[in-house]
Prior knowledge:
The complex is a heterodimer. By secondary structure, chain A is α/β, with parallel strands linked by helices. Chain A is 44% helix and 12% strand. In chain A, helix 1 packs across helix 3. Chain B has twelve helices and no strands. At the A-B interface, helix 1, helix 3 and helix 4 of A face helix 3, helix 4, helix 5, helix 9 and helix 10 of B.
Amino acid sequence: MSGHASVEQLSRYLDEELAARERSAVEVHLGDCASCRERLVGLRRVVGELERLQEQAPPRQLGALVRRRLQQKRPPGSLVARLEERVRRVPVTPPLLPLFGVLLALAIALYLLALAAARWESSGPGQQRPAPPSAETAPAEPPAAGWRRLAGRDFRRSGDVWLERGVGPQESAERVEWLSPDLAAELAELSDLDGPVRLRLHGRLVEIDPDRLAPAR
Amino acid sequence: MPSVESATLGSEDLDLVTRHRYGDEQAFEELYGRYEPLVYNLALRMTGDRDHAADLAQEAFLRIHGNLASYRGRSSLKTWVFQVALNCFRSRLRRRGWRRRAVEPEEPLERLADARRDPESRLLAKDAGERVQAALALLPVPFREAVVLRDLQGLSYREIARICKVRIGTVRSRLARGRERLRQLLEGAE
Lengths: 217, 190
């Protein structure tokens, strides 16, 4: 071993993370070098002091605060998910069931009527009927295996980056280091993705690193 | 030191997650009971402040509750929980007003050595634990994360790499540099 042992070698030596050969070389060097021995003792003392830091008990009211905030929080997800959650929480007693059925039938009828009216409007006289959806224009399926849905968008990993649905791996993206607070809040969920993310923002294809986005000053 | 990953990547954790997915409120209660001290202490060591730590732990558990259904079991639940908590911490660092108190690591070493300068420094000289905590708070965040996860939470290099989303080589380097800086800080304060 030439020269002194590096701090990284000494630190890994303490953790028994060195391979046998490197470990032997460090041990031989430590036998000859008072300066490295002294440094190792210092590092060992630091680790010892850290390990002696006692675990602190959380404040007693912490659990109650978390529960209260969970109750206040709106159920996550889409409007449909929130409505489902509300409906699920409404106690439905037997006498209410027929009424609920009638209301549901009415809601479905209204929805179908609205749908028919919208179609009639869009395909009125002189207007061309929209082409039937092709495989490319069909609405996006719910995320399949390998896709993650965050901030209302679908992403899949391609190499080291995450690509939004519709973004090709070869497309060049503009790297963005700063987002407005509103946009940063809207995309906050992306911090669950490990690595850079390419997505379309206001018509531009951009690449962001969710963990490194600078806050608005 | 036992690997936390191997200890916790069990069916119990996956069972908790499955129950939570199916709307069993008790599942989150059990998870909370199991991870509350760990998350609070991680937050405390990262922030160096009890109020901030309680606040951060609350936010972490809200996020855990909201995202638990998406946990796929690729890493241990503990690793995932720590990852969420540290993401909350980093998000908070980006907000104004929190940064100054929770971190500003690049302070001169003499600050620790000079016990007369402010009350915080006086505390350092009084109690070994306070001294170590104060020195920890002076580490740059990436070094602090590595040191806290390894030396206080007992995670393996691989688990730390997964939580911090870096290579193992980076973990080795950050841990070594963090420990070395702590050594200088603590020796300078004596």
